[in-house]
Design a protein that fits this description.
Layout (H helix, E strand, L loop, with lengths): L13 E4 L2 E9 L4 E6 L4 E5 H5 L4 E3 L24 H19 L25 H14 L2 H7 L6 H6 L5 H8 L16 H15 L6 H15 L11 H12 L6 H12 L14 E8 L4 E2 L6 E2 L1 E8 L4 E9 L4 H12 L21 H8 L13 E4 L8 H9 L3 E4 L5 H17 L19 H4 L4 H17 L8
Parallel strand pairs: 6-11, 11-12
Antiparallel strand pairs: 1-2, 1-5, 2-3, 3-4, 6-9, 7-8, 9-10
Helix pairs in contact: 2-3, 2-6, 7-8, 11-13
């Protein structure tokens, strides 16, 4: 807001958004939100970030002149609004003005250029009025194309008088063409009825598949005919005006509809920016991949492909739970994975004392007393936030309801850092390198890298593979961690 001025967000503050006047009715500083109300009494709750980053935000003055509507405050011009070519042209104009005022193009005798001062502008021999008339005559005698290029064809005696007393950036901005930084006057064809129709089409398109610009324009015509039958059809904006207005108000709209709806839901929930993970159990990342080892459902069954689903604690990079399913996983399997995250893992046959609960702060006897069995060295906790990709099982309505029942927030992966989402994928590669490559039935990462007959080499059943993976996770990943997560 530095370029627009300091914005004081307080009740009673008047704003203009997309040309419509709003008033701040209430401010919830602890939540970072404020309540806006328009002239018709319609209220909307928005965040501070949304308001500050609004593309067409204008500040209205606190008081109005009697009998006249309050003009929309205009952003002050700065040199940053000009291109390099425009700044150079403004400097050339300012040099002519300074030469008429002081006799030197740089404005001071200490910075005199070679050949200065020229006889017609020598301050010791000429007066200020004589120098101004000489400069006006020089501009009039300048070749027309050069004068037009520099914008000096209208530099007259009166103009030089008006620019007197300015210096520095103020003189450069005064010499800059006002059309370079002219604020858009808006679209006169976008009336209140048309604006209502555009926002109605926006709301309609939010729940539908991607529509072309022509289809949205037809929807606007349909809304205008149904809602305002007396509105003249010839005054409805054309398709190209509609495209310009849509782009100015809502942006280019290049996101996929599914991701756009997710982003809007996150914005309404106040989730924005990047989420920083700073404690164990804060974020649980779920992901699935085909297991690169052929398994058998029973000892004498056929070789099948299984899916490995991992739950990764993003702070410790530990694996509190995993799940093996035949073929592809379902939402029920993912829900059972969340159950495994929240429950202690029992000790299995063949596991020694070194694989029992070792975490400092909570004795193993206390854990075994309320669970009824000895607990392995695997942390368990109730996850606060669950983040996944856009796979079908993770977006299932039943699974979403389960996550809400246990008190989890559901966030898209984009609110995390890019390295956070890659963490769970690196775990798949680690397990493959340290475990799967040593098992019979390993298929490799590519079809061309497979053995002669991996199905023939498959020797592990699904239950045996679960035991092997659980043993590996407890021994390698969890046995030497001293972070208590209970």
């Amino acid at each position: 807001m530095a370029a627009r001025g300091f914005l004081q967000i307080a009740p009673g503050r008047r704003l203009a958004l997309n040309g419509v006047e709003w008033t701040v009715e209430d401010v919830h500083g602890q939540l970072g939100r404020l309540v806006l109300v328009d002239g018709g009494g319609h209220t909307e709750t928005r965040s501070f970030r949304w308001l500050i980053n609004h593309a067409d935000l204008r500040l209205l003055p606190a008081t109005e002149a009697p009998g006249r509507p309050a003009p929309v405050s205009r952003q002050p011009r700065t040199l940053a609004d000009l291109t390099e070519d425009q700044v150079e042209r403004a400097r050339l104009r300012a040099a002519h003005v300074l030469e008429a005022e002081t006799g030197f193009r740089e404005g001071h005798p200490a910075r005199a250029l070679p050949g200065e001062p020229r006889p017609a502008y020598d301050p010791d021999r000429t007066t200020l009025t004589q120098r101004r008339y000489a400069k006006a005559a020089e501009m009039k005698a300048m070749p027309r194309p050069e004068a037009v290029r520099l914008g000096l064809q209208h530099l007259s005696f009166r103009t030089l008088e008006r620019l007197s007393g300015l210096a520095g950036d103020s003189l450069l901005l005064a010499c800059a063409d006002g059309r370079w930084t002219r604020r858009r006057s808006g679209h006169r064809s976008v009336t209140e009825e048309v604006r209502e129709a555009i926002f109605a089409v926006k709301a309609e398109c939010g729940e539908r598949a991607r529509l072309s610009l022509a289809a949205r324009h037809r929807l606007m015509h349909q809304y205008m005919r149904e809602r305002f039958p007396a509105f003249p059809a010839e005054k409805i904006p054309s398709r190209w005006t509609f495209a310009d207005v849509w782009r100015e108000w809502f942006g280019p709209g290049g996101a996929r509809p599914r991701y756009g709806r997710t982003a809007e839901a996150a914005a309404e929930a106040g989730v924005s920016g990047r989420m920083v993970v700073h404690r164990p159990g804060q974020v649980l990342v779920l992901d699935s991949t085909p297991m690169p080892v052929k398994l058998r459902e029973t000892v004498f069954g056929d070789a099948v492909t299984a899916t490995l689903t991992l739950a990764l604690d993003l702070y410790t990079h530990g694996l509190p739970a995993f799940r093996l399913t035949l073929q592809s996983d379902t939402s029920v399997d993912v829900a059972m994975l969340l159950r495994d995250v929240m429950l202690p893992l029992p000790m299995r046959d063949g596991w020694g004392e070194d694989m029992e609960w070792p975490y400092a702060g909570v004795p193993a006897d206390v854990i075994a007393e309320f669970t009824g069995h000895r607990v392995a060295a695997l942390p368990f906790f109730a996850p606060e936030t669950v983040t996944t990709d856009h796979g079908g099982p993770y977006k299932n309505h039943d699974l979403v309801e389960v996550e809400r029942e246990i008190g989890c927030r559901i966030l898209p992966a984009r609110v995390l850092r890019q390295t956070d989402k890659f963490a769970v994928e690196r775990q798949f590669l680690t397990i493959q390198t340290m475990l799967f490559e040593h098992l019979l039935g390993f298929t490799g990462g590519d079809v061309a890298d497979r053995g002669a007959d991996p199905e023939r080499d498959a020797s592990l059943t699904l239950a045996q593979a679960e035991h092997v993976i659980a043993t590996w996770i407890v021994q390698i990943w969890q046995n030497h961690k001293l972070v208590g997560l209970c």
